[in-house]
């Protein structure tokens, strides 16, 4: 049997739990459980056979994206979710032995891609309070081929300042900024692409816009980076349904903002109630929270599982020992979560 490349043989794949989730309370993948704009559903109902039988066309979408984000079309690239943005960036710029700085813990795909390309990863741990290790990352970025900044970060929920990203850009050859959750802290580093020619900013429609199932994202960078990435990406990696629905979702800012408002309300409610039950909860800028369950970890995970409440168990030693990550959804879902725990813990542990 043919063997894969040497760098792939020992790589542990990213295998998230993907099946049998739709009839449960989904607090595990940071999805928008409210769902996309009703206008998106109407768009799907009105797609024509002609639209589906031809290859995707992107010009109209780029015109809209340019208008909405205030970025010239030459400085953006539509991708098959932000995952593809990450992969083509590694494919384009990372070679075996390159130094990559990755603040840790963070989205697992960054470490997986580094392993696939044989890069040397320097992991900079987040601070004990889960805040971004600004000084250490800036210092570590000297001479790095690439530094990764996820802001707000998954799973910590904490953000890096635009000023810090700028300082990193002065030291690393390339900075990849993943802003999958930027709608929840209303902050973006997109403006940095005007000042630095080595900054890539990735957005997604999977979270605030509720289009995780369609897989569509956007990359922002200077013209040279975008034109180079276009050499690597598949010319039709984003399908027609995703393009049409993303445009419709982006036009309905009122729905997106309404979702964000309810989700943040639910997040703050969950944080407050979990603290009243005696659990340690870290502050968050995103649509999810990290909760340290301490000695109650196994018990709580079991309770939630038996009640069909899906969460991500992030306990892995270090600063996330005994921690779970909880996505905020609707207030109804959040109330079910809290009432389930109150049935077992009452007013406190």
Structure commentary:
- With 349 residues, the protein is α/β, with parallel strands linked by helices.
- The strands form three sheets. It has a seven-stranded mixed β-sheet, sandwiched between helices. It has a four-stranded antiparallel β-sheet with strand order 9-10-13-12, with helices on one face.
- Helix 8 (162-169) links the parallel strand 5 (146-150) and strand 6 (175-178).
- Helices cover 39% and strands 15% of the residues.
- It has helices at residues 6-9, 38-45, 49-53, 59-69, 81-93, 108-116, 134-140, 162-169, 223-232, 240-251, 253-276, 297-306, 331-345, and strands spanning 25-26, 76-79, 99-104, 120-125, 146-150, 175-178, 199-204, 217-220, 280-281, 288-292, 309-310, 312-313, 323-327.
- The mean pLDDT is 95.
- It has 13 helices and 13 strands.
- The termini are far apart.
- It is globular.
- Helix 7 (134-140) packs parallel to helix 8 (162-169).
Chart the SSEs and their pairings.
Elements: H1 6-9, E1 25-26, H2 38-45, H3 49-53, H4 59-69, E2 76-79, H5 81-93, E3 99-104, H6 108-116, E4 120-125, H7 134-140, E5 146-150, H8 162-169, E6 175-178, E7 199-204, E8 217-220, H9 223-232, H10 240-251, H11 253-276, E9 280-281, E10 288-292, H12 297-306, E11 309-310, E12 312-313, E13 323-327, H13 331-345
Parallel strand pairs: 1-11, 3-4, 3-5, 5-6, 6-7
Antiparallel strand pairs: 2-8, 7-8, 9-10, 10-13, 12-13
Helix pairs in contact: 2-10, 4-10, 5-6, 7-8, 11-13
